[in-house]
Amino acid sequence: MKLIDTVKMATTTLMANKMRSSLTMLGIIIGNASVIGMIGIGQGAQELASEQFESLGPNVLFVIPGSRQSRRTTFETPNTLVLSDAEAIASQVPSVENVAPQINGRFLVTVGNRNNNVLVTGVTPDFLPVRSFVVEQGRFFDDTEVRRSVRVAVIGPEIASQFFPNQNPIGQTIKVRNVNFEVIGVMEEKGSFLGTNQDETVYIPLTTMANQLVGRTSQFGTQVSIINVSARDPNSIEAARFQIENLLRLRHKIVGEDDFVVETQKDVLNIVDTVTGGLTIMLAAISGISLLVGGIGVMNIMLVSVTERTQEIGLRKAIGATEENILLQFLIEAVIISAAGGVIGTAIGVGGLTLIALFSPLPTTASPVAIALAVGVSGGIGLFFGVVPARQAAKLDPIVALRSA
């Protein structure tokens, strides 16, 4: 019997049992859609993280208080960095271009009868070039206002829309912890970063933050939450890291473990890529289990089919069909079911990723490699799990088959 005739016969048999064929394909459909969807979401998360870290600014280093061990074992931010550390970095590290210390805190912000608990950040004017922030409306505060601890604020665009709908926020007054601040600028939209909405932030002079809102929290000076540093060029990043570490070790008189961490943009991105990559593999593996379950379902239904079609098998063998003909027919049926389920599942997975990309910030795309892998694996599963029922059908004795029918 020709292969084309065997394929036609297998297709006709499957079409004659549409409900059973559809239910058999369901496990494969769910498995393929899950694998493609999970891989697409994982890759989208990696891409989104890369975009967010690129938006931090070029050649950026972050000096973070506390050792790696202390940051893993405590919920409170260690107070090991002070403002004088940032000033020393700016004046004594030749490979550094700008230094922007900052103090973070969450306070109640009030305008009239509107209030919200938002992130308030005390910074210096160097924050703009280091972190690539842009003022869209008005202006940013200058060094004179920082030295004088002036009560001025630059707000994020979402703060502006929340507290000053349909009016110009410039010149208006907001209360931060019951302290009045004049709004002098509105930042350009920046988006979220690692779960923090950067557009829902109030920026005030660092000295105003230290002296009038948080107070003195370290015996060695004004405590800072982080020191943002920009190197002179990409080739200076490692040199800047080395010089900053040596300087701070001398200043802090460190003989053991450092009480600070210097991370580059690339370091943090690598950590996030490792985490998201691991999650993607884990999600794909979990989704792959459903493909395995679908394959077992194919084998189960095909075994039932062999039992139901003993008369057909016996009759075909009695009129001259060989074991190879019977084996090939049942294998082709299993492969058609699995491949068709793979194609439908792929379409559902791609459609789901398209909807996620349309209605969420996650840039999800269906990887051609993931599609080819999912369809290929589903077809292979059909072939693998179809072998047992196909061999059972091929080994049936025609006389026994006709009698049992």
Helix/strand-derived category reads: alpha+beta
Individual helix count: 14
Q: Tell me how many strands there are.
A: 12
Instruction: Tell me the domain tally.
Output: 2
Provide the β-strand percentage band: 15-25%
Helix content: 55-70%
Order of strands, widest sheet: 2-3-10-5-7-6
Distance between the termini: 24 Å
Shape: elongated
| Radius of gyration, CA atoms, in whole angstroms | 33 Å
Low-pLDDT stretches are none
**Taking all residues together, what is the mean pLDDT?**
80
What does the largest sheet look like?
Answer: 6 strands, mixed, barrel
- Helices and strands, in order, run as HHEHHEEHEHEHEEEEEHEHEHHHHH
Organism: Cyanobacterium stanieri (strain ATCC 29140 / PCC 7202)
Transmembrane segments: 21-42, 281-306, 326-359, 365-388
Main location: membrane
Domain MacB-like periplasmic core: 21-247
